[in-house]
């Protein structure tokens, strides 16, 4: 075990020069070129501070090579036995559909999941879907999606929209929602959003207030009937 | 003048075979291959019905060639002297920044506008920004943006988010907001959204209720401070 201030790595980190490029959460590349990994060096402290501000901690070294070192990063406070990371293409069989069905109606077929996953990938930079995986069962037990909107207002800036937040019934009261929302907020900050907004029913207002949110505007909704004509496109 | 049922074209439409592919509003391609443009033919009526359901009317023939015919389509009820269409790259000098400044703070520099326009174009299918142009002054007097979100819930479906709706102070009380919101809603329908949502302050609830919207959920908001560290990316 190696400690850097408040940080502990589960395996010793080689004493090469490295640079933390922490891209949100999940795995992070540590390039062995820019800063020394001495516990006392200013640059190491800066890298650790960057992770710290994002509410994350380095939990383990995933792999290392001559050129780089891959570390696992997760939000501070995330319950033991869980991992927060981005959604992968092969996550369908880890119970994503069952998890989302706790949020609203509609079965998610694998083919449709892959179509939508591919569509989202083709619109690079818009969708950032996070999941929490229960490490023992390899099931997804929470998810939330950040949509990054490029705006013309505010001088041309970015706003994050959070959609489809759900924590599995049987994994509640462990602070998973807070860890998930922290991960999303830190990603929004990294992507230079000046605010994030979400819509929820009145019952869930206190949940988001605990995550630092405040009540904002009113959502208005228009339901749209599908087009029925054969000549409609 | 030529009439098809309730429809009037400002110039006679050549009696060739054509197919209406009405992509929202603005200009629409009419391909001379699929259906006959006889006033009494079923296929012409179908094409006209499709436009009608979208609350649009054909206002003029913009251009024609051997292969296709371009017609101007605009929402029914749009005040004379105005045109609703998609935002173009060269619209910056038609007063977009001044219009948006009535909505919120922040000057929009031309360079930044073009950066954001390019970014939005690279994320094909997400952004659909409509504007209303005052034909006499060539100034943009209203705008609204539809963002189409690809969802995993609802069996893999689409939801429209409406953002940054504004009508110029000096062009109000002419029904422009209604025409604009109709255009956006019909585009959302064409793009297979099952609902559209937007956030507004309590004062504007009646405006959207007139457009068919109902009060929905609560918006929650989190303001995000920018990252300040030199090592932050």
Question: How does this structure look, described?
Answer:
The structure is a homodimer of 233-residue chains. The first copy, chain A, contains 5 helices and 12 strands. Chain A has 233 residues and is of the alpha+beta class. The first copy, chain A, is globular, with a radius of gyration of 20 Å. A 5-stranded mixed sheet of chain A has the order 7-8-9-10-11. In chain A, strands 3-4-6-5 form a 4-stranded antiparallel sheet. Chain A has 2 domains: 2-75, no CATH class; 82-210, 3-Layer(aba) Sandwich (Aminopeptidase), CATH 3.40.630.30. Chain A has helices spanning 42-53, 96-100, 110-122, 176-190, 205-210; strands at 2-4, 7-9, 17-21, 26-36, 56-64, 68-75, 82-86, 127-134, 139-150, 158-167, 193-200, 214-223. At the A-B interface, helix 1, helix 3, strand 9, strand 10 and helix 4 of A face helix 1, helix 3, strand 9, strand 10 and helix 4 of B. Strand 11 of chain A pairs antiparallel with strand 12 of chain B.
